[in-house]
Amino acid sequence: MRKTVAVQILLFILLSSLPSPAFPEQEALFYKKRDNDEVQCELCPHRCMLSDGQRGFCRVRLNRNGVLYSLVFGQPCSVNVGPIEKAPFYHFLPGSKRLCVATAGCNMRCTYCQNWEISQTSPEDIRSYDLPPEKLVEKAKSFGVPTICFTYSEPIIFYEYMYATSKLALSEGLKTTMVSNGFINQEPMKKLLPYMSAVKIDLKSFSESFYQDVCAGRLENVLETLRLLKKEGKHFEIVVLVIPTLNDSSMEILKMCQWIHENLGDDVPLHFTRFVPAYKLTSLPMTPVQTLEKAHSLAKGCGLNYVYIGNVPGHMFNSTYCPSCKKRIVHRSGYEIKELHIKKGKCAFCGYDIPGVWE
Amino acid sequence: MSYRAVFCLSAKGGSASGGLFIFPFLLYNKIMNKKLNWSLLIIGFSGMVAQIILLRELLIVYLGNELSLGIILGNWLICEAAGAFLAGQLMKKITRKHEAFIYLQLLFSAVFPFSVISIRLFKSVLHMNPGEILGPGTVFLSSLALIILPSFIHGFLFTLSCKMKEKKDEPASSIGNVYVLETLGNITAALLLTYLLIPRFHSVDIAFITSLIISFSCLFLVFPESIANQRPALFAVRLFFFLLFLSILLLRGSETLHRFSIEKQWEGQKILSYENSVYGNIVSAQMEEQVIVYSNAHPAFISPFPDIESCEEIIHIPLLFHPDPQDAMIISGGLGGFLRELLHYPKMNIDYTELDPAIIKTAFQIDKRKRLDPLHSELNSERIHYHLVDGRLFLNETSSLYDAVFIRVSLPAELQTNRLFTKEFFLKAKSRMKKNGLLVLTLPGSLNYLTDPMKSLNGTIRSTLRSVFSSVVVIPGETNIFVSSDNALDINLSRLQNRLEERNISHQILTPFHLSLKLDPIYQEWFNSEMKKVPEKINRDLHPVSVFQSQSYLNSFFYPGRKNIFSWFKNISFVKILSLFFLPLALLPFAILPQRIYSRGVISAAVFSTGLASMFFNMAIMLLFQIFYGYIYSWISLFIAFFMAGISLGGAVSTRKITDMKNPQRAISFIQYCMLLMLLALPAAAYAFNASVLPSFAHLLFRYILLAFSLVFGFLQGYEFPLASKIYTLTRREMEKTAGFLYACDLMGGFIGGILSTIFLIPLFGLFQSCSAIFALKSAVVILLLFAQKNR
Ligand code: SF4
Description:
The complex is a heterodimer. Chain A is α/β, with parallel strands linked by helices. Chain A has 9 helices and 19 strands. Chain A has 2 domains: 18-70, no CATH class; 78-347, Aldolase class I (TIM Barrel). Classes of the chains: A alpha/beta, B alpha/beta. The interface between A and B is large, with 47 and 50 residues.
């Protein structure tokens, strides 16, 4: 199985050694120089080995004369404002808005990507804005949003941009979040976390073969990231997109929930989201709601406290219930917060501590 | 002539009308009384059946669109052409031709059912995602592997058949005979498939029935007189195959294989029903409590729990622009949730049509078995009227007026669906609207980034709508919602929010808050500024540019960069395209070579270009018919039947006359002139009809004129092939090589014509310019022929 990913990466890198158009280049962080002007990127577990002129699997990191550059620093292609619940973050400033930012490129190849227009393309193939960190932070302030959210494609691959912006944003009183696949090496993640207010990780499945065949990634590395987030005490939420026939078996979901319970504790919010046909996976139907409900009860059975069903508007498990008094403390309808009974991070009814970033 | 299946499939149909074929049958009565001829007819029959059945199965697996259809057909034709060509080269080495003829047919009969099963199983065997669209590269390689055997064998058999029928004194007439017989076999296959086989049997049954017919033919029709002289082994093999297929069918082994293969194909789902309609394949399946109905492997609807967000947004937000909607029409995609949303309006009456009426029938069958809301309430509401006709035709003929017309077809990706996105259709829809009436349609979008193909497609439909309606509002999202009206549509958020609340409909997601997100002026401004960057094009019936744009969008899933064949075509000017069609003139300098060699080149070019022109001509006729009269399956079948009858008639007449023909070169030139004339007549007729300059009775007549065009073009093509063979054999007396090579040229021309016409030529340049490009191609051939004659 590992071969599948290795072959994909190798083929991609070989094919990518074409002359690259001029980009505003920023030297990349986390890479090692090797012999003969070769470099090895150490940002994500692909650890691409690149000769002069080659690009990484993510399409946005280029070796030029033995120096690795990020081609998307300050060059987002998507910048817009949306509700934080759409991420979804359910335990992070409910009802607030975020400035969403993304560049081209991704270090995975999910066949059902909802943002394939940008994630599966190279920076030269799309139009981007010139928004260095300072301008981006200014923009967030001018929109009056409390948070900058790095999202849509894969923020890991525009690490340098995200890192610089987060540092600046924090100093300007803004919060930062990232919506990521978690396929990143430990060292860069550790360096980033002090400047990140919350993280959402897409746990795409609990099967190594799914990761390799459908996403061109590896499960173990994502689990390592989750462990790191727990260790560093960062607020994070996990989203599992349940895709019919691919990652919806009860056994797999049960194993996943058990692992979360054992390694990350009971309080990590876990979202089971309904699949909607997208990109290349248009012939699978939407996930049966019963499958999501089964997953929900498996997770609850494992002792997890905050389990949600997403993308089924009106479902009772869109809302948050206090694990102690069982009352509904956040009533959601779509992306709207109808009722909020959390005060200073505690249940307004019984005073139980609710994990998250509430202020 | 198997590229006729291209035609059958692109028209999503088969063939019709038995009476038509009596004449060619009578004409060939003399031939028919020979048993070998029956066998040749069966080869034509089985080839067509295999091609259509395998293509249908492949399209289900590949979740096909026009492009994958083109690739699969291309593979079939290339393999068939290779078989025919190779047979020509190897013929001398085959000493026992009769035995080879039998063994190859038996091999074909074994390979055909095997291929059907392999197609259904290959994704599961190779651990591919069942619901994933495959890229053009994968489609090319896998379909090549899956169909190489039957198509290659069939091509080989064509040349071998010509050899079997060879007359020493006139080799070209034997080719002509086989050509005619094969066409008759094709027609029979198309007829039987349409009216008997596809509606009643599944593909595995059809494959085994065909295999049984072939083995019967091998046992009883091919050289039975020589049985006594045969080696017992040959007889035993023939008998074995016959009994094998007979027992598989009688003992329902084919049913077991069918069940097994579809369960593998739809792994993880319980199959409730499996039906082949004339338009495609309808499967209903169950996952947990959810029932899914697939149309050609795409989910057509699910119940219960539809995509609530889409249902509420697409139905209710547009209706907020109307003060009191009461009558609506939905074309396709309404079952399982959208119709239910309309029923929330107490006074609403709804007319509903589907692209494939079999979807509605399947929905009613499901409802009988199981009560699933919202499906149940939709199917049992007296306020919804189901019409089993083409949506455009319905709109043409109804006298009802509507407050809202919803088009729920996701993409104008084919000529058939594009008819619901053209200026002409919008005008028609507008004429069926009441005051304040709305036209609502959706297109793919994105709030993150609009790719170039997305922009072009959205931009074209937007300008097309704006050319008809005075007010067009687009609500951007993952799905862009276009609302058009002659009433001024104003995005006044607070007014719309008030209206939403006044209506007091219980929504799961559509609250005033959600409405404020959807109608955020930032998105409006962003979308409008993106649209300003694309040239304003109009999508018209006779210039369906959005088909190309949709295909380009689908292609961008696999080739997201700017350098691909679609961007190349998008940027090419018509003058450059025209010069491409003059390419055959590159053969002119070879006129100085010995006439024998030059003639061969010219004749090959003539046959190739006729294959191409004929495919284009037929596609153009189908387009015209669908535009003017709607998608009526029986008529589409009639066109195919007339065209093929034309070919067999032309082939028959030509084969009869060929022996005494003094100057076949002149005859073939004459055929080219006639084709040129047809290429002028078709757009002229279309123009006259489209511009309504004709008296009204002419409108009734037009469909018969189109039928006549089909017949005549078929006749010309049929007439040409034996003539071309004659000229070719005059220069090179090896009949089998001639047959193989010309057959290959014919197939390739048809294939290229099919892809070019439907995806590139007609969509990008429109009917009139496309006709002139084909006219250029045929003119170039005429010039080449003139030189060939001069050299004589
Ligand atoms: S970030 Fe990009 S270049 Fe670096 S290892 Fe990952 S895929 Fe390769």
